[in-house]
Each structure stands twice: as C-alpha cells, then as structure tokens.
Design goal:
Elements: H1 2-10, H2 16-21, E1 29-35, E2 38-47, H3 51-58, E3 71-80, E4 83-94, E5 97-110, E6 114-122, E7 126-136, E8 139-149, H4 156-187, H5 192-195
Antiparallel strand pairs: 1-2, 2-8, 3-4, 4-5, 5-6, 6-7, 7-8
Helix pairs in contact: 3-4
Length: 206
C-alpha cells in the first residue's frame, strides 16, 4: 500500500495532504455539550479538495449508506429545487451503547456553501443542522453545528464520548469518500494498462 501511494504521488494522482487525511481523524475537531435534554455539537475539519468536490459527496443522499458506516439506508423522497426531503435509517454503536435512528429531514441547499437541515419526523424530538463549506487555499473547511433533543436519555459523561466518537467517524467517512472519488477521477485519465494494479475502489467504471 505504501509503495502504491508513493507511485500515485509521483504520478500526481494523489497529493500528500490527501494521503495523510485518508483514514485519519486526528484533525477533526468535535465539541459536544449536553445541557439537560439538549445536545449541541460543533465539528470542524479540513478536506484536501475543492468546495464542489466536497459538496458532491455531502449532498449525495441517495448513496450515503454506501460510504457512511452508521447509515443503513438513505434516499431522497421529495425534491423541489434546492429543498429536499430525505429519509434515513441507521444505527450508531460503541461497546454496550447503541442508538438507532430513523428520520425524515428537510434539507435546504445553498450551493456550494451551505446545507441546512430540519427534522420533519423521526425518533428524535428535535434535530437542526447547519453545515458550511469555506475555501482555504487548496482545501475546504467543513464546519457543522447541530442542536438536537434525542428521544432517549443520554448519560452525560459516557454519552458525550459516544457522540464525539460517532461524529468523528461519520465525518471521517465523508472525507475518505471525497478522497476516493478524487483518486478515481484522476485514475480515469490513465492509460488502461496502468489501471489493473490499482485498488478496485480507485478504478474507473469499465
């Protein structure tokens, strides 16, 4: 894998920052505050990609279950311009703790800068989300703010760590998918004789 990564860098297919980010989550900043029933979260992290590349992954709701590990199903059930309704099901689990979610959310899109979400129905009593994308040189800064009231009691200490870990994993999955798609797009420009030795995830469609 290290040899392959070195070859890809030499070919200009994968930049070093992207290689460092793939699979790593140390630079994904997650803050969780539990105030009574209310859970407030803030997440911030860089992605070595353009806003358009990040946007394409973060708004790919119909395929989200294929690259976000705690999402079991996800689909757009209604669309009117930049306003969508999406239905999602999933399960977050860490050790003995688990939390299943089933929701319909209204999504308002402001390409390629902002994604706002509002809970329409589901197991949670409240879920408001605001994701903003900002260009930072050759990268994009993703900043997410969420305010929710779960449908079940969240233990303050253990629950806080549980939420932090799940959010970090979820956004790591999203960043990894951005990197995977960037690599696949660049590999698609290679002569076919070079493609056979690459991982399946990096190969363009036949």
């Amino acid at each position: 894998m290290k040899k392959l990564a070195a070859i890809l860098v030499l070919l200009g297919l994968f930049q070093a920052p992207a290689l460092a980010a793939l699979g790593d989550d140390k630079d994904i900043e997650v803050k969780v505050r539990i105030d009574g029933e209310d859970v407030v979260v803030d997440v911030s992290f860089p992605v070595p990609a353009t806003q358009q590349e990040v946007w394409a992954v973060m708004t790919d709701f119909d395929h989200m279950a294929s690259f976000v590990s705690n999402v079991q199903s996800s689909r757009v059930i209604d669309r009117s311009g930049n306003v969508l309704h999406i239905a999602q099901q999933g399960k977050a689990q860490r050790g003995p703790l688990s939390f299943a979610f089933d929701s319909v959310r209204e999504i308002r899109l402001s390409p390629f800068d902002r994604i706002q979400s509002h809970l329409v129905s589901g197991k949670m009593r409240k879920l408001e989300g605001d994701t903003q994308l900002k260009s930072e040189g050759d990268a994009t800064r993703v900043a997410y703010h969420g305010d929710s009231i779960p449908g079940v009691w969240i233990p303050p200490l253990v629950g806080k760590l549980f939420i932090e870990n799940e959010l970090r994993e979820q956004f790591r999955d999203i960043r990894n998918e951005v990197s995977r798609r960037k690599l696949a797009a660049r590999v698609a420009t290679l002569p076919r004789r070079f493609v056979g030795g690459l991982p399946k995830a990096a190969r363009p469609p036949a």
